[in-house]
Amino acid sequence: MIGAFPAGLIGIAQAAQRTLPPVDLWNPPNCGAIDILIRADGVWLHEGSPIGRKELIRLFSTVLRKDPDGYCLVTPVEKLTIGVEDVPFRAVAVTRRDGDLVFITDVGDETVAGPDHPIRVEVSPDGEPRPYIHVRGGLEARIERSVFYELVEAAQRDETGALGLRSGGVWFELGRDQ
């Protein structure tokens, strides 16, 4: 299946395995779209079939960027737009380190909640919370339900009665009583 992906994209992603490349500094021309979709449940599809290799998903995640015109995979010489149903990542675990909340995403990114990585909670039309955390460069992870329950269990009320947590010196509201 690798042969179906542009060779330049694979090479850049492989080089970025241990560190994130400076995708925000690259301004290649848009070469069109590639049939990759990240579903709302976190499954990455290529031409309608799930990409089964976690290593390949991790590699692609390192060259993912959100531009004003949507999500794209970028290299220094090409930009390919992709589809994303909600946000590209899932926060699948959380722990406390030195009093801060540290989230782990489904692609292995580690993010410490704070002023540069805020937590936000939307409410869906059916009244369910939809929590997110900023990961990097405009990319967010949806906080999985089980992880959100851990946050709610550890949360405290502030002086206004809002339920929330502190991390990185910032108070993050998780919700209010209706």
Written overview of the protein:
- By secondary structure, the chain is of the alpha+beta class.
- It has helices at residues 7-15, 54-62, 145-154; strands at 30-38, 44-46, 49-50, 64-67, 70-74, 79-84, 89-97, 100-105, 110-112, 119-123, 129-136, 139-143, 156-157, 163-167, 170-175.
- The strands form three sheets. It has a six-stranded mixed beta sheet. Strands 9-8-7-12-11-10 form a six-stranded mixed beta sheet.
- The model is unreliable at 1-5 (pLDDT under 50).
Give the number of helices: 3
**Oligomeric nature of the chains:** single chain
Characterize the biggest β-sheet: 6 strands, mixed
Strand order of the largest sheet: 3-2-1-6-5-4
Mean pLDDT: 89
Helix content: 10-25%
Number of strands: 15
Please tell me what the overall shape is: elongated
SSE series? HEEEHEEEEEEEEEHEEE
- Give the terminus-to-terminus CA distance: 50 Å
The SS-based structural class is alpha+beta
Helices, strands, pairings?
Blueprint: H1 7-15, E1 30-38, E2 44-46, E3 49-50, H2 54-62, E4 64-67, E5 70-74, E6 79-84, E7 89-97, E8 100-105, E9 110-112, E10 119-123, E11 129-136, E12 139-143, H3 145-154, E13 156-157, E14 163-167, E15 170-175
Parallel strand pairs: 1-6, 7-12
Antiparallel strand pairs: 1-2, 2-3, 4-5, 5-6, 7-8, 8-9, 10-11, 11-12, 13-14, 14-15
Helix pairs in contact: 1-2
